[in-house]
Write a structure and sequence with these properties.
- The chain is of the alpha+beta class and 365 residues long.
- The strands form 2 sheets. It has a 7-stranded antiparallel β-sheet. A two-stranded antiparallel ribbon has the order 2-3.
- It folds into 3 domains: 132 residues, no CATH class; 68 residues; 91 residues, Pleckstrin-homology domain (PH domain)/Phosphotyrosine-binding domain (PTB) (PH-domain like), CATH 2.30.29.30.
- It has 11 helices and 9 strands.
- Helices cover 47% and strands 23% of the residues.
């Protein structure tokens, strides 16, 4: 056996004045001496007594030393497993180091599972970097598991944890634009199949997925078709309806200002004559005023408002734009006042339906 290449000799600092005066050795130097032993001598030339003598020389209780001794064992584990394999020679070195450091079987096993589990996780993450596991990568991971003699429960836990993170990132990326296309759904399904994982969505996630599927279909031009009570034109279908109030902007007078030079002349006690000019200035503003209430229908040809007082329809060829708000939509026409349809409901869906319907109507015109 030769020295393990993972340990290097270090210079042990000279004790301070007080330590020399009291003939005390700094306890932190204890582990520097053990490291130098491991770095300078072949493993088969070392015995447990060599390490024990150093601990005794520094009056280091073994319970206090145990974490640092396990660190030495962990360093050797990382070094010997760098090639993703533990050969018979590697295991012999580890077994002898286990004996030298005076570790219990439980301590050695804990270190092996922790360190070798970290190595397995790192190799798994490298394989998962492209979101796919090839047959060669799967075989390589299986060989690592076998060579490291890791418990199946440990590798399964690590595998599932990291694979689910990859799937979650892919899921979040697909949901980021609030659309869930067939291509995105197929990709997630293929990833899960490749990883050997069954995705179980929560009720909340399933509801979100269905909504985003619907938004994606509408954006792709697959508009829903609704039955409606209003009379439609030949070839006309209804895609959405919205219970709302119809409002329009009206000019409202706030106040009247009077100004201009004036004067007065006293005629007699209690009576004066005023003269001059008076300028009148009207101060106005525009306010939204409710005109009606009813239902707005979005069809493939126009907007139809079925109100309690009157009906309105706006063919898409007269519509020059619209603006969605959190509580409704403002429609911009080429002539006349722009109507505001305000109410509560699924405004995101309504806006997307209107945008798609208008786009399709213009394309077919």
């Amino acid at each position: 056996m030769a020295p393990l290449g993972c340990f290097s000799k270090v210079e042990i600092p000279r004790p301070g004045f007080v330590s020399r005066l009291l003939s005390r050795k700094p306890k932190e130097h204890c582990f520097l001496e053990i490291q130098n032993l491991l770095a300078s001598r072949e493993l088969n030339q070392l015995t447990a007594a060599d390490v024990e003598n150093v601990l005794s020389d520094y009056e280091m209780p073994r319970p206090d030393a145990s974490p640092r001794l396990m660190d030495f064992y962990g360093t050797a584990l990382r070094h010997l497993s760098h090639d993703n394999e533990l050969s018979e020679s590697d295991r012999a070195d580890l077994k002898h180091l286990h004996y030298l450091l005076g570790l219990t079987d439980a301590e050695a096993t804990e270190a092996e599972r922790r360190i070798l589990g970290e190595v397995y996780r790192a190799r798994l993450l490298g394989a998962l970097a492209d979101g796919h596991l090839s047959d060669d990568e799967k075989a390589r991971l299986n060989r690592i598991t076998t060579s490291f003699e890791l418990p199946q429960s440990l590798t399964t836990s690590i595998y599932k944890e990291e694979v689910m993170k990859v799937l979650q990132r892919a899921f979040d990326a697909a949901m980021n634009d609030r659309r869930y296309t067939e291509d995105e759904e197929q990709r997630l399904s293929s990833m899960a199949k490749n990883f050997g994982i069954t995705i179980n969505y929560s009720a909340e996630d399933r509801q979100k997925l269905e909504r985003f599927r619907q938004l994606a279909r509408i954006e792709a031009g697959q508009l829903p078709v609704l039955s409606t009570v209003i009379r439609l034109q030949r070839g006309e279908v209804c895609h959405a309806e919205f219970s709302c109030r119809l409002l329009e902007k009206r000019t409202v007078t706030k106040r009247v200002n009077y100004s201009g030079p004036t004067g007065s002349i006293r005629i007699m006690k209690g009576l004066r004559y005023r003269y001059g000019s008076m300028s009148v200035q009207r101060v106005t503003s525009e306010e939204l005023r409710q005109i009606d209430a009813g239902t707005l229908y979005i069809t493939n040809k126009r907007l139809v408002f079925d109100g309690t007082a009157k009906n309105q329809n706006i063919p898409y060829k007269k519509l020059i734009g619209f603006t969605m708000y959190s509580d409704g939509v403002q429609v911009n026409k080429d002539t006349g006042r722009d109507p505001y349809f305000l109410g509560s409901g699924d405004l995101e869906m309504l806006g997307l339906v209107l945008d798609t319907a208008v786009s399709k109507a213009h394309e077919s015109a």
